[in-house]
């Protein structure tokens, strides 16, 4: 990237963040007093979502089952006996069941993608587009589900009932229509191996143009610009709608993703055509598509699929633009949330802070809720989880906007998790744990999402197709085997039963939170937890009413009593949910002692208001420092004296510029993670904070100073202590990532001087290829690599060894203390697969005939495995012939592997899933 483009990009990102620098001599006198704000509550912090897969909910019109296509399942995609095909549900059926949906307390219906799909993809099973994620026409409803008019009628009826309708949308990909001249569904080719080329043949990095004017993006040629040559079947050249989607140069065309690293953003999802979202033409086209659905149908919001697989610049343009359009068309509460399938808040929050989107699905909550309610985890883990909500706090969003959920159509149902985590518990306990998960979801911060069927106790053995049962009577054999929680019913009959215990429980939760709004979007303040299973307690407080609600959940299997801290002493509380005394009182220290039945929840509400504060408490700021998890975020923490509900507003001044709000936190610990990723290393940043009490009094903390740190460089490959030979791929990543980075790589042989081996400015992965051949190295010679940036940032050293000639055989050693390895046709052996193992060996292996040991030596069974490529992984399962029961006939650990060039010999032990590179315990 040129110096001019880098400077312009920095200015744009500063302005977008509200932190554009002004001269250090600027007069800040009129800003001497920090502005005290209340914690933000966005337009959507109190919705109850019901997530519906239209094909699987209700069949209101059998006339559209075939989608207007010939009566052949491999053409129409309709086969109600197969879980991977259309089963018959539609929008008419959904509209007919609005009473049932609303009876749960639903305020918003979220539909899986309902646009016209490629009916069948023969390469995928075959299976059909019943799920909605193989779109060919973004302008019409899939004929299997009905028509655009059916959608309009559904939205109209929902709006008349006071319910909203959300669309699940896709910006990352379309159906698999584009093929490659080199072959179908090719493996991913990186930008370092095959960079993009303009139509004139010049190489370029697409990220240098992301977020720019569409006219600036280089012209591309299908024949020369991509690592693979995109081609269309003549019958499908104009298949996609709008027409611009038929331009093959508007796709990445790099092969299939492995879902990690660079290819996570650039690769095809199992062949689905991955859009070139860095090209501003694609940004414009996608925004125009979804703006029409807002204008023409009054859609109330979008859930956005596969958000983490699209570049940041796309979201920075798409989100604000679509939101502005919606508000200009009367949708003041329009709301978008994205699917970011990750459980680390430093990553998921990136999309609501740096990327300027409103919200994301709360996958970290799902993980924490399952461990708490289903797994009986220590309650301290839940307290830590909620404390880390500060990652989401910025000037226009926070964790109160996050949709929370317990299971979904991809990962599986919560009922299934409960059964899997507690296989011998029985139905009573399963239902109790299921209900406990929903109580946590409804009473804690965020917008709860019910996945259709969970209210009827649906389970299923896994995710994807195994979690997509019909609510109407099913003919799918795999679904008919499911055991439903809380009922003797099966999937052979309709399951729209308001009397089901989980339906009634969820309806009650919605009713309680509707009567007590503080339980939906009031301050969430953790109060009590422990290092064991038991009580986790928190308060919910509406800042206007100042009424404190104490929520106590018990995830143990015995009654638990706890003294929960509150903001009041010697005051009465009434029970509004759960079992226990109708009234309790706090003691002189402000503690409310509650007894919570096993796997249950109680909620008590203060009679009256929290006492009005007479003066703002003292506040001070700790020294800011870069967050350990994300180098581009500065952790700023305030200590506040006193015991009441407070709002703490943080502000920042960059290089002496104007003070700008960073965010407001309303629960201790008071903290923000300021995004400084767009600022140059060494830039001075000053922070201040002000506390606002419930009496309207304020007090400011003394400002503190920090500097933006250097980026953190990390070498991803080769593997530490691994073996290398020939040409070595050396790859690094930077945190924070910037398209302007130029990374230089150096090598040291056997402790000798550092030598530059190359540099790379092609983000987001920086790569050089180091040819070791001319060095004539002896086996086991050490080679060290490091990466640097012009700013002075240097990676940790990555040390490897020269591997010498390719291995022809690798060895796995297996230990059973009793020495019972078996013999002949009944002995423990290896199921093997992958490109490393000699094909002649693989041809001899079957599940009932695993690869046998060569010998038993010093008590260990020794398996010698002939190889053809020691740089590829050896994949294995240790088991008895036809054995598939852990631990009796199959070892734990699932599919395991090792890389022979790194570890020529490995060791495993009975009952231990670890693959050891050296003798364990030695």
Explained architecture:
Helix 10 (363-374) packs across helix 13 (427-443), helix 12 (414-421) packs across helix 13 and helix 13 (427-443) packs parallel to helix 15 (501-515). Residues 1-30 have low confidence and may be disordered. The strands form 14 sheets. This protein has an 8-stranded parallel β-sheet with strand order 14-13-12-7-2-1-16-15. A 6-stranded antiparallel β-sheet has the order 17-18-19-24-21-22. The longest helix has 18 residues, at 280-297. Helices cover 17% and strands 26% of the residues. The chain has 922 residues and is of the alpha+beta class. The protein contains 17 helices and 51 strands. A hairpin with a 5-residue loop joins strand 21 and strand 22.
Biggest β-sheet: count, sense, barrel?
8 strands, parallel
Structural class: alpha+beta
Give the N-to-C terminal Cα separation.
52 Å
Spans of at least 5 consecutive residues whose pLDDT stays below 50 are 1-30
Instruction: Report mean pLDDT, rounded to a whole number.
Output: 95
Q: Tally of extended strands?
A: 51
What is the global morphology?
globular
Oligomer: single chain
- Helical content (DSSP H or I, runs of 4+): 10-25%
Radius of gyration: 30 Å
Total DSSP helices? 17
- What fraction of residues sit in β-strands? 25-35%
Arrangement of strands in the largest sheet:
14-13-12-7-2-1-16-15
């Amino acid at each position: 990237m040129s110096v001019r483009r880098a400077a312009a990009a920095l200015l744009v990102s500063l302005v977008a963040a509200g932190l554009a620098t002004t001269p250090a001599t600027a007069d800040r006198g009129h800003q001497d007093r920090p502005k005290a704000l209340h914690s933000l509550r966005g337009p959507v912090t109190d919705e109850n979502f019901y997530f519906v897969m239209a094909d699987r909910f209700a069949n209101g019109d059998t006339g559209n089952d075939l989608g207007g296509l010939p009566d052949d399942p491999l053409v129409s995609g309709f086969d109600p006996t197969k879980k991977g095909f259309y089963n018959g549900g539609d929008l008419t059926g959904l509209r007919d069941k609005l009473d049932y949906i609303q009876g749960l307390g639903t305020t918003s219906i979220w539909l899986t993608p309902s646009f016209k799909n490629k009916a069948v993809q023969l390469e995928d099973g075959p299976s059909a587009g019943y799920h909605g994620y193989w779109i060919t026409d973004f302008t019409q409803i899939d004929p299997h589900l009905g028509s655009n008019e059916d959608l309009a009628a559904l939205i109209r009826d929902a709006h008349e009932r006071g319910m909203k309708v959300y669309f699940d949308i896709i910006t990352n990909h379309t159906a698999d229509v584009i093929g490659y001249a080199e072959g179908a569904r090719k493996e991913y080719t990186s930008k370092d191996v095959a960079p993009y080329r303009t139509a004139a043949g010049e190489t370029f990095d697409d990220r240098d143009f992301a977020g720019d004017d569409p006219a600036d993006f280089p012209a591309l040629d299908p024949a020369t610009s991509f690592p693979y040559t995109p081609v269309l079947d003549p019958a499908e050249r104009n298949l996609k709608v709008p027409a611009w989607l038929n331009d093959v140069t508007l796709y990445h065309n790099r092969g299939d993703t492995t879902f990690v690293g660079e290819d996570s953003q650039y690769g095809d999802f199992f062949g689905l055509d991955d859009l070139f979202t860095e090209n501003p033409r694609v940004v414009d086209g996608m925004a125009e598509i979804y703006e029409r659905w807002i204008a023409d149908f009054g859609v109330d919001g979008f859930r956005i699929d596969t958000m983490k697989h699209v570049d940041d610049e796309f979201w920075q343009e798409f989100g604000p633009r679509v939101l502005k359009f919606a508000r200009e068309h009367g949708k003041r509460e329009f709301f978008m949330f994205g699917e970011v399938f990750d459980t680390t808040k430093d990553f998921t929050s990136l999309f609501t802070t740096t990327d300027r989107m409103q919200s994301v699905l709360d996958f970290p909550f799902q993980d924490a809720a399952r461990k708490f309610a289903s797994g009986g985890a220590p309650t301290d883990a839940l307290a830590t989880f909620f404390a880390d909500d500060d990652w989401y706090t910025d000037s226009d969003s926070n964790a109160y906007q996050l949709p929370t959920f317990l299971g979904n159509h991809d990962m599986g149902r919560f009922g299934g998790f409960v059964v899997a985590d507690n296989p011998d518990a029985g139905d009573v306990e399963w239902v109790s744990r299921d209900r406990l998960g929903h109580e946590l979801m409804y009473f804690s911060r965020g917008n709860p999402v019910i996945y259709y069927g969970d209210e009827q106790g649906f389970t299923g053995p896994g995710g994807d197709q195994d979690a997509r049962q019909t609510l109407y009577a099913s003919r799918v054999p795999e679904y008919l085997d499911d055991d439903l929680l809380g009922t003797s019913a099966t999937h052979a009959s309709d399951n729209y039963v308001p009397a089901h215990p989980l339906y009634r429980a969820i309806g009650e939760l919605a009713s309680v939170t509707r009567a007590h709004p503080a339980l939906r979007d009031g301050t969430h303040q953790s109060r009590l937890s422990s290092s064991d299973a038991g009580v986790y307690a928190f308060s919910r407080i509406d800042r206007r009413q100042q009424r404190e609600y104490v929520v106590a959940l018990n995830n143990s299997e015995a009654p638990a009593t706890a003294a929960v801290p509150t903001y009041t002493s010697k005051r009465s509380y009434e029970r509004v949910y759960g079992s226990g005394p109708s009234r309790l009182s706090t003691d002189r220290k402000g503690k409310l002692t509650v007894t919570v039945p096993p796997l249950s929840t109680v909620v008590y509400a203060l009679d009256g208001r929290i006492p009005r504060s007479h003066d703002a408490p003292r506040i001070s700021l700790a020294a800011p420092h870069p967050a350990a998890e994300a180098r581009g975020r500065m952790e700023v923490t305030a200590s506040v004296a006193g015991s009441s509900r407070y709002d703490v507003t943080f502000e920042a001044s960059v290089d002496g510029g104007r003070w700008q709000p960073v965010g407001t936190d309303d629960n201790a610990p008071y903290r923000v993670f300021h995004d400084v990723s767009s600022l140059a290393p060494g830039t001075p940043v000053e922070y201040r904070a002000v506390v606002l009490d419930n009496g309207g009094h304020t007090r400011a903390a003394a400002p503190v100073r920090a500097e933006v740190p250097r980026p953190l460089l990390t070498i991803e490959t080769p593997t530490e202590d691994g073996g290398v030979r020939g040409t070595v791929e050396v790859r690094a990543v930077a945190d924070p990532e910037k398209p302007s980075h130029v990374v230089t790589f150096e090598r040291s042989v056997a402790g000798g001087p550092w030598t530059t081996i190359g540099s790379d400015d092609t983000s987001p992965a920086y790569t050089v290829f180091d040819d070791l051949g001319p060095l004539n190295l002896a086996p086991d010679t050490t080679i060290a690599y490091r990466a640097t940036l012009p700013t002075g940032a240097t990676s940790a050293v990555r040390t490897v060894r020269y591997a010498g000639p390719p291995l022809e055989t690798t060895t796995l050693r297996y230990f059973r203390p009793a020495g019972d390895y078996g013999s002949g046709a009944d002995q423990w052996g290896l199921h093997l697969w992958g490109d490393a193992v000699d094909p002649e060996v693989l041809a001899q292996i079957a599940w009932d005939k695993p690869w046998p040991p060569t010998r038993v030596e010093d008590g260990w069974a020794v398996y010698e495995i002939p190889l053809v490529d020691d740089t590829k992984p050896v994949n294995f399962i240790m088991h008895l012939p036809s054995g598939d029961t852990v631990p009796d006939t199959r070892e734990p650990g699932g599919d395991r592997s090792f890389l022979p060039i790194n570890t020529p010999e490995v060791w495993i032990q009975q009952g231990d899933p670890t693959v050891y590179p050296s003798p364990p315990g030695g």
